[in-house]
Amino acid sequence: MFKSCLRMAAVLVPLLATTSLAAADPIEIRQTMMKSVGAATGVLGKMVKGEMPYDPELASLAMRVLFVTPAGFITQFPEGADSPTSEAGPKIWEDRAGFEKIALDMQTAAMAAIPAAGESLDALKPAFGAVAQNCRACHEPYRVKKN
């Protein structure tokens, strides 16, 4: 089940990142993209914590989702693309360069972690930690948790 969801995410995320979706709602697109990221980090986190068996193919696929998502994700924040249901904080638009830098850092860390993800659990653990730091680095200043 996890593999099929991640395979679908691995196909959909690059498609969303490279396809012109002018008529689509950027809030919905980025929320869908973040669900893919959440699924991928959830799988990797469970492997790292020993809550599910390490699977090199699945770990590599999950890390690839974390690699491909940031490039398209940052394009889904045009001016005014906010709503009461969005967790996007105003700092995204106030500090666009900082927001985009963190996305690039996330992508760089995930790219470096892809080989480790497929190598072994011992290699995955620190690699995933480096990627997860970028998640926190973005969520803390640029996300507003809604109730």
Structure explained in plain terms:
By secondary structure, the chain is mainly α. It has 6 helices and no strands. Helix 2 runs antiparallel to helix 3 and helix 3 packs parallel to helix 6.
Structural class: mainly alpha
Rg: 15 Å
List the total number of helices: 6
Distance between the termini: 29 Å
- What's the mean pLDDT score? 88
- Give the fraction of residues assigned to helices: over 70%
Beta-strand segment tally: 0
Largest β sheet strand count, sense and barrel closure: none
Uncertain spans: none
Order of helices and strands: HHHHHH
Shape: elongated
Work out the strand percent: under 5%
Topology:
Layout: H1 2-18, H2 26-49, H3 56-73, H4 91-94, H5 96-119, H6 121-142
Helix pairs in contact: 1-2, 1-3, 2-3, 2-6, 3-5, 3-6, 5-6
